[in-house]
Amino acid sequence: MLNIVNLRNLEMVTKNAYEVALQAVLLELLKAVASETKRTAKFRTLLKRLDKTLRSIEPILYVSGRLTRVLDRPEKETKLFIFYLENGKEVVLKCSRIKCWNVYKKFVHANKLIRLDHELLRFFQVELQDNVSTRLTSLSLEDGVDQVLSTVAKRAGGFSSSPNVLGLPDVIVGLNFHLKELKRVLLKEDNQVVTVSAPGGCGKTTLAKMLCHDDEIKGIFGDNILYVTVSRTTSLKTIVKKLFTYHLHVKDCEFQTDEEAKNQLENMLRQMGSQKILLVLDDVWSESESLIEDLKFPIPGYTILVTSRFLFSRVGSTYELSLLNDEDARTLLCHLAFPCDGIQINVPDDIVSKMVKCCKGFPLALTVIGASLRNQDVLKWTSTLQKWSEGQSIFDSNSQLLLSLRASVDALEDLLIARDCFLDLGSFPEDEKISASALMDIWVELYNLDKEGMYTIENLLELSSRNLLSLVLARKDASELESYCNKHYVMQHDLLRELAIHLSSQEPIAQRKRLLIEIHGNDIPAWWIEQTQQPIDTHLLSISTDETFSSVWYGLKAPKVEALVLNIRSKKYTLPHFIKEFNELKVLNITSYGIYPTELHELPLISSLSNLRRLRLEHVSLSPSIQSIFELKNLQKLSLIMCESGNAFESCTVNPSMLSNLIELEIESCYDLKEVPAGLCSLAHLEKLSITNCHELEALPKGLGSLSNLEILRLHSCTRLAELPESIGNLHRLIFLDISDCLSINSLPDQIGDLNGLRVLKMSGCHGLEEFPDSVTKLILLEDVICDEETSYLWSYYESDLCDLNINVVEDDRLANFMKIVC
């Protein structure tokens, strides 16, 4: 018994020693974090996160028994943790010594800070209730979200700002008064729900976003401003999922019922305590009025702002957004119609006044029509007015507003393909980004446009200049748009989308050039069920389904379909069997707009599409049945965007007889792609290969040099790619190479000099490169190197050897993107 007591005493002394040591090192770390937070701005966000973790741990150090329970683990683990924290202090103190221009070191150092925070949470998880970072990823909502709800609010300091709130127009006219009045109504204590109501195109969304950006509102609600675009087909579960995913960064939330989703959201909001919360529900349709009631909770300081083209008299207060007065309307129209600061040129005042009067103060109508008349002569103005003078007021209702905007589409009478391109935009869901690349795939095949995209991009730019769409360039080097569009997208106001659908639906269903079908739940349109045996003449078929669709299909005869767009939201989706009969199909676009990648079934059906030339799969989960894609002998372009690859490629085989006509392969943002199948190196005709933003990709096939016809190779932002294969020197036709932001590449192979056709090399953000092989002097055709300032110094040594070389230095500060990768 005495020996046992002595052993226990010894154990107690040891624990006490560890307690003292751990207390000391944690306090030193806390001081270091506080000091560095004041000294440097580069890592301030991560340091503040670390400070929150340490502050939540600190009380444990002084409460009897709690620290003892934390240290009740193997002695070796405790020693290692104390040693790790001592090194962590040095990591923190090094923050201010990292140079702001050294993006690579910032990235590496940020990783260390994040890892330190995670280790603290892991070690103290026995006592620490605010352990969110290490538990949310593995804990489903079904298994106990209630027990982590309070920790989310504490750890995150509330909700994070929604990206949807961003993006105010460059010019806002006539809404300042409405903003002031809306704030007055919204901040009344008896108004929990306020609806901003007006016809489509009146600026409701712009006003809501102005409110979210307003300093007074941000001072009241802080970071607790939640913004969700509701749209027509959104369910309660989808809204709550968006809130948890985009604001709380909870990735694996699932709700069995709407009631469960409602309860979990209410619990979360209650955990915010006394903090005020603003929930913005943008674009609520009449059939979704019940969602507003479901999201009302008796929580002090909780307010809901709704925007809708409908009046909701039974739900809270309504603020009716009036139209622009004549002065503001004229200002807006002139700003769009006359490029010289809105100053009228060659158009009489009375003509402008008549045009303003016809637009009736609708901001969207003024914007679109003003853009369509930009730099036009008086004759164009008068002819447009003449078309409108034939009927009554064109703005009496929302449907008549759609008809009035038809004039801006009719103005494309000399640009028939551009008009068709506008109408094709109705094939995609409302309130969603449309990839410019996806549009160009369709237009190239439907309208026999150039394969390189020069004329297809002209149509995009033409429609953008008339404000019939918004073209968003994600890169500064917009000149690349015609050859690389996955990073650029199109946004279209839902009113203009309705216009495109309206104009596409004038003929009988069987005779329509484009057939746009929306299925809610499993309600197949009656005409479809009745006409399963009657052929339809459509060339562009779009089928949109919601998250409750269970892939119950009826037969559909459409022998002339050349482009098929499937817009899906469900977790599982079975391709319709009738596509086997689409013998003329040239373009197939399958895109999931759900929060998680959709699991595709019956993918082998596409192997029967003998004329398919372009296949785009976006945000879907691939399976080994992807092998069927490799059997498409006439396929010219394959795009895999944001796909979950899993082990799909492991069992696939590719031989020279497969994909024998493939010219372009795009693999974009496939986050779990670790290696590229070696068989792809047998694609003898491949000219363009883009593997970008695949952050898990570690190596390229050694046989890459077998792609003897390759002209363009993009490896942008493959952050773990360590090297280029030596065989790259065999790509003698390569003209363009992009390895920008490939952070892990620290050397170029000697064979790089054998790329004797290379003209453009993009390599900004490759800070691991300290020197180049001397063989770069053989790149005699190299004209442009796009790099950061640090890399430009390395190239300056070779300027005398490369006479035509232009070194283009670009700003390079992508730390924010790196945080997305590692967080």
User: Per the principal axes of the C-alpha atoms, what is the gross shape?
Assistant: globular
* Parts with pLDDT < 50 across at least 5 consecutive residues: 1-13, 126-161, 391-398, 475-485, 814-823
How many discrete structural domains? 5
CATH topology of the largest domain: Rossmann fold
Q: Could you say what the CATH architecture of the largest domain is?
A: 3-Layer(aba) Sandwich
The level 1 CATH classification of the largest domain is: Alpha Beta
Alpha-carbon Rg, integer: 30 Å
Strand ordering within the main sheet? 9-10-11-13-15-17-18-19-20-21-22-23-24
Helix content: 25-40%
The computed structural class is alpha/beta
* Count of helical regions: 24
Overall mean pLDDT stands at 79
> Quick one: CATH superfamily of the largest domain?
P-loop containing nucleotide triphosphate hydrolases
In whole angstroms, how far apart are the ends?
52 Å
| Overall number of strands | 24
Characterize the largest beta sheet: strand count, sense, and whether it forms a barrel: 13 strands, parallel
Strand % is: 5-15%
Entry summary:
35% of the residues lie in helices and 13% in strands. With 823 residues, it is an alpha/beta fold.
Descriptive account of the structure:
There is one protein chain. The protein is of the alpha/beta class. It has 24 helices and 24 strands. Helix 10 (236-247) runs parallel beside helix 11 and helix 15 runs parallel beside helix 17 (398-410).
